């Protein structure tokens, strides 16, 4: 019961990783506001059922929880979510930004609507809820935020919208840690590996089959299926406890196989020309081995 007396808000908590995070926080003693719009994996439709079921399940086990159905891509949702939390439980200590959707498409076929929808839910949604809770955390001089980035942000075919949103969340988290750190607020991000309806999609399975037939590299589905959301929920809960005091502005790769602290972006090589630049000087001075550095795509 490390979080007894604390109150947590979890977005996208009706299924998958968000559900597990809500349940793990509740098991540690926190009261939980279970936010979920209830749409499909692509964000279409609404359904109050998922949020109700998770909140009811927590209450049935002796915990405290209420559902919330707001769409986190809308500014008014953030204010309503935090005000509802304060009205029901009198305080808020933890915000887990997890809500997300998928609209996968190769770049040359992606529509403006597919781009905008993913950016709105992931990146703007993370801002919306963080902005709403920031004033409360600032006044009480405490708070914990955990945002959900992804390895896809490091580069993943067919997910330029998702990758942009997730890498934006990583940069946003580092800045939030600076903006709110002086008020005793911690902000970290995770890049989770977990088998959920979004990761084990029919599109992924079809793509793996096509890659197998073509002899191309592909995702190991057996390994992916072994990554359970529970491991992610446990680590996120730990980040919200006093044991993680002082950890802020960091990113963690999390799966059943373990936890890895991700490196912070840093320059890895440098060339200085005191007399200025032109194309010939660049030709003569830039190291040829820069061409040999492969992008990192996880693994």
Briefly characterize the structure.
The chain has one domain (7-261): NAD(P)-binding Rossmann-like Domain (Rossmann fold). 42% of the residues lie in helices and 14% in strands. The protein has helices at 16-27, 49-60, 75-89, 112-140, 160-181, 202-214, 221-225, 229-239, 279-285; strands spanning 7-11, 31-35, 65-68, 94-97, 143-148, 185-192, 251-255, 258-261.
Describe what this molecule looks like in 3D.
- There is one protein chain.
- An 8-stranded mixed beta sheet has the order 3-2-1-4-5-6-7-8, sandwiched between helices.
- Helix 5 (160-181) links the parallel strand 5 (143-148) and strand 6.
- The protein has 9 helices and 8 strands.
- It has helices at 16-27, 49-60, 75-89, 112-140, 160-181, 202-214, 221-225, 229-239, 279-285, and strands spanning 7-11, 31-35, 65-68, 94-97, 143-148, 185-192, 251-255, 258-261.
- The two termini are 34 Å apart.
- The chain is globular and about 70 Å long.
- It has a single domain (7-261), classed as NAD(P)-binding Rossmann-like Domain (Rossmann fold), CATH 3.40.50.
- The chain is of the alpha/beta class and 299 residues long.
Task: Present the secondary structure layout.
Elements: E1 7-11, H1 16-27, E2 31-35, H2 49-60, E3 65-68, H3 75-89, E4 94-97, H4 112-140, E5 143-148, H5 160-181, E6 185-192, H6 202-214, H7 221-225, H8 229-239, E7 251-255, E8 258-261, H9 279-285
Parallel strand pairs: 1-2, 1-4, 2-3, 4-5, 5-6, 6-7
Antiparallel strand pairs: 7-8
Helix pairs in contact: 1-8, 3-4, 4-5
């Amino acid at each position: 019961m490390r979080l007894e007396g604390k109150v947590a808000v979890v977005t996208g908590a009706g299924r998958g990783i968000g559900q597990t995070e809500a349940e793990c926080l509740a098991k540690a003693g926190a009261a939980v506001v279970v936010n979920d719009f209830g749409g499909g994996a692509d964000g279409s439709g609404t359904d109050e059922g998922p949020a109700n079921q998770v909140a009811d399940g927590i209450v049935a086990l002796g915990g405290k929880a209420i559902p919330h159905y707001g769409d986190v891509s809308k500014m008014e949702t953030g204010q309503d979510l935090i005000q509802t939390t304060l009205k029901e439980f009198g305080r808020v200590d933890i915000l887990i930004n997890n809500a997300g959707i998928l609209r996968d498409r190769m770049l040359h076929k992606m529509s403006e609507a597919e781009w905008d929808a993913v950016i709105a839910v992931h990146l703007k949604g993370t801002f919306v809820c963080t902005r709403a809770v920031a004033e409360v955390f600032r006044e009480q001089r405490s708070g914990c935020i955990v945002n959900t980035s992804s390895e896809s942000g490091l580069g993943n075919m067919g997910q330029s919208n998702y990758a942009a949103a997730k890498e934006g969340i990583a940069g946003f988290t580092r800045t939030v840690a600076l903006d709110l750190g002086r008020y005793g607020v911690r902000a970290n991000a995770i890049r989770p590996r977990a088998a959920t309806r979004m990761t084990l999609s029919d599109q992924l399975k079809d793509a793996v089959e096509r890659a197998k037939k073509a002899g191309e590299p592909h995702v190991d589905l057996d390994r992916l299926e072994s990554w359970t959301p529970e491991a992610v929920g446990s680590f996120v809960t730990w980040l919200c406890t006093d044991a993680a005091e002082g950890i802020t502005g960091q990113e963690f790769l999390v799966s059943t196989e373990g936890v890895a602290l991700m490196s912070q972006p840093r320059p890895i090589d440098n060339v200085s020309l005191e007399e200025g630049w032109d194309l010939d000087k660049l030709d003569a001075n830039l190291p040829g081995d820069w061409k040999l550095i492969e992008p990192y795509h996880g693994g």
